[in-house]
Amino acid sequence: MRPVHYMLALLVVVLWGVNFIFIDFGLRDWPPLLLVAARFTLVVIPAIFFVKYPRGNFRRILLIGVFMSAGQFGLLYTAMFLGLPAGLTSIVIQIQAAFTVLVAPLFSRSSPSRRQIIGILIGLSGLCVIGLSLQASVPIVAFLVALAASLSWAIGNVIARESRRARTVCR
Q: pTM of the full predicted structure?
């Protein structure tokens, strides 16, 4: 990769992290679900003019939206509203990668490889350490809601991947 690609990747990481700080600020004055609705409204208005309507099965598109947008962000914002700090939320939500591998066999014929299982176990053990260390400082329900957000994101990932596969097979 060229240096510009590294800089763009770094920019994505910085923007991703700063995003959680702005969510935290917003939650001081707005209820979580209203803030999610406002965020997506501000995003969809310009998108209507520049993004083509997605082709494909409307039911799948709706499910992807429910899990990857409404479910993930609604639960994520609620977890932060319930007391999960922004920095910790940005870490906990990443368990979606492991959840995606675990959820995939429910929707397809895929199964996790040995390497993936080892990675999942390492990730889950780290998450357990985080969860156990939070008991005194963060409401456990906030942590669990963040895990639910991660699971929602994972389900959306799998549905989106299977939708792409279905379109490829049909061509």
A: 0.84
